[in-house]
Protein 1
Amino acid sequence: MDDLNFGKRNKRGDWEPFERISAAPLFEVPTRPVAIAKWIFGWDGYLLPWNLFYGLVAVAVWLWATPSMATMQTLAPGWALFIFARNAAMISVTSGYLHLRLYIMKKQGGLFKYNAKWPSKSSDAFLFRDQNKDNMFWTFISGVPQWTLYEVLMLWAMANGYIATLDATAHPVMFAVIMFFIPMFRELHFFMVHRMIHWPPLYKYVHSLHHANVNPGPWSGIAMHPVEHLFYFSTVLIHAIVPSHPVHVIFNLVHAGLTPGQGHTGFDKIVNGKTVLNTHGHAHYLHHKYFEVNYADGALPLDRWFGSFHDGSPEADSAMEVRMAKRRATLNRKI
Ligand SMILES: [Zn+2]
Ligand SMILES: [Zn+2]
């Protein structure tokens, strides 16, 4: 397969797709029902393949890898550690597989790789001077523990009836509706948290840790400062307000925990023989490259509404330059 049929490479060897990043057709006027249906149900759309996959993972985890509600009525280290081990295993399988395939075995070399360079193994920007070790450190020392803590507390509260729980047998439609909206809600929540941590003081002390990864890999996904993890995984608190099923809690957190691995691969597509999977990582790659664009991932047109959208084109580059110049001028006036 030749990636030059799908994009172009610059002098440095960085590859970029011809296809521009597009937002979902959800809020277009006039409404285009066929385009919306295609976006929801078509391949490479909202459900297929990724969100359906993470939804099925959540159901499987609830059925076969979650303690009973009776057990979870009492806070105890045994079942909490079990959930920690299962979350650590899940991210090790997903991000670990992507890293092994793309960065250690280099199965597709630089094919569809945005940045021609490989992650740094000698940079002061990272703990141990090694990007990958640094990323895994933050993932396992803070990311998975906080993901687990939120999950344990939410499931414990549900098991005790401290928060309202949805009966999936009595309300199957509501169950499906909440499942459907979880990835969208996650995006809205992430957008708000993300804008907040780009506020200079929070950026400097918190979010800059994640942004040290200007050339991200799968383990960069939830390589974040502990304060960012605290905000990031708070997405699950919505289920304390909206009566939900434990599967919803698990899905929300599985989505928050595992999708960044896919979104930070640094590759536009994963190629395995004739199978080609889009990672949908381009918008967020541009965020890591330019910092002030694409705070969300594109299921909701939030960046368009707030003027921070970058579709990968030279025109978007120019618009970004103008925005930056205006911002610098305002800052200078204030000083
Ligand atoms: Zn990122
Ligand atoms: Zn950011």
Protein 2
Amino acid sequence: MYHPSDHDVELSEEEFRLLRDLIHERFGLYFEGNQQASLRSRLLGRLASLDLMSFEDYYHYLRFGPQRAEELDRMVSHLTNNETYFYRESPQLQVFAEHVLRSIKETKLASAGGERKRTLRILSAGCSTGEEAHTLAMLVYDSAQFFWNWDVQVVGLDVDHQALEKARRAVYFHNSFRSLSPAQLERHFTRQGAGASVKDAIRRMVTLRHGNLVEPASFDGLAPLDVIFCRNVLIYFSDAMILKVARTFHALLAPGGYLFLGHAESLSRITDLFTPVRFQGAMVYQKPLAAAEGP
Ligand SMILES: C[S@@+](CC[C@H](N)C(=O)[O-])C[C@H]1O[C@@H](n2cnc3c(N)ncnc32)[C@H](O)[C@@H]1O
């Protein structure tokens, strides 16, 4: 059986452009011109698995092959960066735990029909292996504000099936714990072999689902959300796709809802749909109460 090796299959300029545009259109991820070699090495294994002789053949397989949907799903696992860990970027998490949760609770209890509004819905968009979604559930749990007949749900969504499989197992190892104190580890995890599993009380608050940020149908049934975390995901997207995702988030959030992005990510050049709110050590975007439509 023929297996293309690292040495003999080139990715031409033309093939690079075709694949880059397809990936961008389907997933929002944008490969810059200087990432051609990186794209080639990430996809070379797929050519070998499918017994294809060239990247042009692979492009045609992705566009027209009968198994193209499955292959797009498989391919995207090779393109994403899944780096994540518990309690990542703690200043933001502090703002979430100390200001945002309290403000949501007060607003809901003060509004008419407070009893019916005892729900808290949080989305971790691009949750990777689940550390962020579980961290948010731990923070809500430790805030001790949302129990006694509050219905709390943290939804983790990612396009990468393999990452989601790990999130569902909820067993983690050393690398995921780099920002965790021994007390937090003790409180929320049970030792399991060389790793530790998230305790059931936290797991029960988290739901994981497969979805693609650039396909609005991925979010069916989730609105209205109180908080969206989408950190270290849009950094790989083009501006046009960031705008598309920002509009989707805007539609999903309840008026007054909050959006957290990664510390290297900003909507300032993209859209003014959200109001930036500055806290010490963190910036949060808020959907205005009387939300305007448009970019
Ligand atoms: C670097 S991880 C970020 C994990 C976590 N949010 C954090 O900050 O620690 C980026 C994740 O975004 C996911 N991702 C990339 N493009 C996506 C898309 N179009 N739809 C859904 N998830 C996507 C990747 O699969 C990956 O798991």
